[in-house]
Design a protein that fits this description.
335 residues, alpha/beta, Quinone Oxidoreductase, Chain A, domain 1, Rossmann fold, 2 domains, seven-stranded mixed sheet, 9 helices, binds NADP nicotinamide-adenine-dinucleotide phosphate
Length: 335
């Protein structure tokens, strides 16, 4: 890799009145962000946040000329001798922190990042499989681990997953079912039920049923819940948790505001557990990726990875993720 080599990347330019998006093939090494590790990127993935980072008024990108992509997998081509876990030639994963937000991301043939963002690709996962999991799958795993830390165990009763056909939701269904939980999936997609049952859901219910926030308390139904929808869905989930149960909340595709009462908390001992994959400490991140390659390994990665696109095909995929039309995960073949 010479310092004068040019490479391809998908670039969003955020202007005052619009955002333009194009694949450029003339980016130089000087355009990459700060960092001591240079990675030749092979795969990335499409996340809801990438849609926001590529659109006008998305309020996510913190650079005017921006390479989105909050996930990447690739091979280290330059690294300092003393950097742990990232010797030249090592296969690695990077996601979270500023990647694809305030730092050029994974929709690029090369990325430069600080060594303390690096996760070694665990044995048992290919780079493509790791990106089929990506930030969404990591967030699903973090949600499940957080519920387990709070005491949830298989056999406790049904666990609800909302936004179940999306990235976080579908991988949460797969992981929970693989660990032996009874999973009920909530989806707004009329044709989603068979697919979610294939991933391991024992029951599928409609988005309408899980977004009725009209009552402060409903029948106690769920032993736990993974919610990436927020809004009235999270209100409903809180109102229908069983005594002492918890919901792991990670997203806002259904709205950012939360209207609830104190009753789920003071009458049922319910807990609302916040999930953040972005600033999750690197030690937790590396350990959880080991679980994603072993006991939490999604059992249906080929079914979950419903789409594969190139850099040139990204605009359609990014529009689809923002419109809630994507099912499962879409990987990006970067080279
Ligand atoms: N906290 C974190 O660290 C973290 C990490 C990753 C993602 N997130 C957030 O988690 C959310 C999901 O991310 P993702 O990558 O899974 O996105 P995604 O693939 O687009 O999935 C989101 C799903 O939400 C459901 N949905 C969409 N619009 C909705 C609406 N208006 N009302 C109710 N449900 C709706 C849809 O599922 P159904 O059709 O099946 O209902 C959709 O597939 C996003 O808000 C994202 O920003 C947070």
């Amino acid at each position: 890799m010479s310092n004068t080599e040019e490479f391809r990347a998908f670039v969003a330019v955020h202007g005052d009145e619009a955002t333009s998006r194009e694949v450029r093939d003339d980016l130089g090494m000087e355009s990459l962000g700060d960092g001591d590790v240079l990675i030749r990127v092979s795969w990335s993935s499409v996340n809801y946040k990438d849609g926001l980072a590529s659109t006008f008024n998305g309020k996510v990108a913190r650079q005017k000329t921006h390479v989105p992509g909050i996930d990447l997998a690739g091979t280290v081509v330059q690294a300092p001798d003393d950097a742990p876990a990232c010797e030249v030639g090592a296969e690695v994963i990077v996601h979270g922190y500023d990647l694809g937000v305030a730092h050029h991301g994974g929709f690029s043939e090369y990325a430069r990042v600080p060594s303390h963002w690096i996760v070694p690709l665990p044995h048992g996962l290919s780079a493509r499989e790791a990106m089929a999991i990506g930030t969404a799958g990591f967030t699903a795993a973090l949600s499940v681990q957080t519920l387990e830390d709070r005491g949830l165990r298989p056999g406790d009763g049904p666990v609800l997953v909302t936004g179940a056909s999306g990235g976080v939701g579908s991988i949460a269904v797969d992981i929970l079912a693989g660990l032996g939980y009874e999973v009920v999936a909530s989806t707004g997609k009329a044709d989603g039920a068979d697919w979610l049952k294939e991933l391991g859901a024992s029951g599928v219910i409609s988005r309408e049923e899980t977004s009725d926030a009209s009552r402060p308390l409903n029948r106690e139904r769920w032993a736990g819940a993974v919610d990436c929808v927020g809004g009235s869905t999270l209100s409903y989930v809180l109102s229908s948790l069983r005594y002492g149960a918890s919901v792991a909340a990670s997203g806002n595709t259904g709205g950012a505001s939360l209207n609830t009462t104190v009753f789920p908390f003071i009458l049922r001992g319910a807990s609302l557990l916040g999930i953040d994959s972005v600033q999750c400490p690197i030690e937790v991140r590396r350990a959880l990726w080991q679980r994603l390659a072993t006991d939490m390994r999604p059992r249906h990665l080929e079914v979950l990875a419903t789409g594969e696109v190139t850099l040139d095909e990204l605009p359609t995929a990014l529009d689809a993720v923002l419109a809630g039309r994507l099912k499962g995960r879409t990987v990006v073949r970067v080279r």
